[in-house]
Model the fold of this input.
Amino acid sequence: MKIAILGYGLEGVATLNYFNQSENSITICDQNPDLEKVSGINYQLGQDYLTNLDKFDLIVRSPGLNPALIFDNNTGIDKSKITSGTNIFFQMSPTKNIIGVTGTKGKGTTSTLIHKMLIEIGKKSYLAGNIGIPALNLLGRVSADDFIVLEMSSFQLSDCNYSPHIAVCLMITQDHLDWHGQIESYIDSKRNIVKHQTENDIVIYHALNDKSKSLAETSLANRVPYLETPGAIIQNQHIVIEDQIICAVSEVGLLGRHNLENICAAVTCIWQISKSKDAIARVIKNFTGLKNRLEFIREKNGIRYYNDSFASAPDAAIAGMKAITKPKVLIVGGFDRNLDLKSLSESIISEDKNGLVKKLILIGASAARLAKELDGQNYANYEITNAKNMTEVVELATNYASEGDAVLLSPGFASFDMFKNFEERGKAFEEAVNNL
Done:
C-alpha cells in the first residue's frame, strides 16, 4: 500500500513506526526541506509537500495540519483515503475502555488526574493523546481490560470518526481561531468527541458552561454534569459527590479555582467506574500539577516564582493570576492570534484594584495591542519591555517584586514570536529564575 504521512512530528513518527512494513511504500510529506531522512522512506518536502496526494492509497494527517490544506492543494481528492493516527487507534484498539477529555483549558491536568485515579483504584491505565504520547504508540501494548485516557485537542477531533466510551467535556471558550477561522468551527471539532457515542456511553460536562452543556446535549449517551449534582460539586469548602465527602478544599494539592473544577470533572468521571472515595482523595491531595502549569519554581529573597507558560490564551492567564492570591508581578504576552482581550484586561485591572498586581510586564508581539486595550480603560501600571530573552524579563520582574510577593509567568498568548513552543518558553523562565 502507498501511504503518505502528512507532518513528521511526534504523531508522524508514531505513524511511520506503525506502518513501516515491507508491504508498504511510505512517503513523508513535510514543509521542512531539511528534515532528517530515514533510510528506505520516500520524501516530499518543502513548499509543495501537499501536492499530488491523489497517487496514494492512504493519507495519514498529523494533528497540527489543517485538513482544509489538503483539499486546497489537491482538487477532487478522495476524502475516504484521509485518516489520522487518532482514527486508526480507535479502529484498532483492543480495549473499548477509552476516556476522552477535551475542552479549551485543563485537558492535561484533568486527563492526568483521571489516569492517576484509575491506577489508584487498581486499574491498568495508559495516558496518551495531546499530552505528548501518540495513541498509536499504545497499540501492541494494551489489552482488552486496560483503560486508555486520551487528551483530545480540537486538531485531533476535527476529523475524528469515533467517540470514546466516556467523553469528558471541560469549559469551552474561544481559542485556536487562527487554525479554525471561527469559533463555530472550533466547537464543531470538539463535538466529535460525543458525535459517535451510543446510549451505552457516558458524557461528563461542565454544567456552568453553555458551550460544554450544549455539546453534551447532542450526544446519545448518558449525560452527567459536574459542578452540579449528581456530579461532583464544591459544597461547604469540600469536594462532594452523591452526598459523599471526598476531601476538603484545603487539602487539594493544586492551585486555583479552575483546578477545583478540573478535579470535579475527574471525580465525576471516575465515579462512573468506582466509588472508592479514599483512593480518589489520595490522588487529589498528592497531585500538585503538570510542568508549565502554575508550576512553583523556587523562592528567593522571599519572592516566589511560578511558571504558567502553558497558559497560551487569555482565559488561561486569567485563571493563573486568580490562582496566585498574593501581590504579584505579572508577565504577560507573546504571539498574537488576535483573540478578544477585553476579559484579560478587565481581570488585570480588577486584580490591581484588589492590591494584587505590583506591576504588569508586557512582552512579545502582543504587547502593543494589549497596552492599547489597557490604555482604553485608563490603566497605566504596566511596562512594555523589548527584552529579547527570558533572563532580561525575569530580572525586570524581580526588580518590581518585594519579599512576600510572587512573580508569575502566565502569558495568555502563544509562544511562537520568541520561542518554539510553550515548553521552551517555560524552560527559559525556569532557567532564568534558577540563575538569579
User: Anything to note?
Assistant: The chain has three domains: 2-77, 87-286, 295-434. Residues 257-271 form the longest helix (15 residues). The domain at 87-286 is CATH 3.40.1190.10 (UDP-N-acetylmuramoyl-L-alanine:D-glutamate ligase).
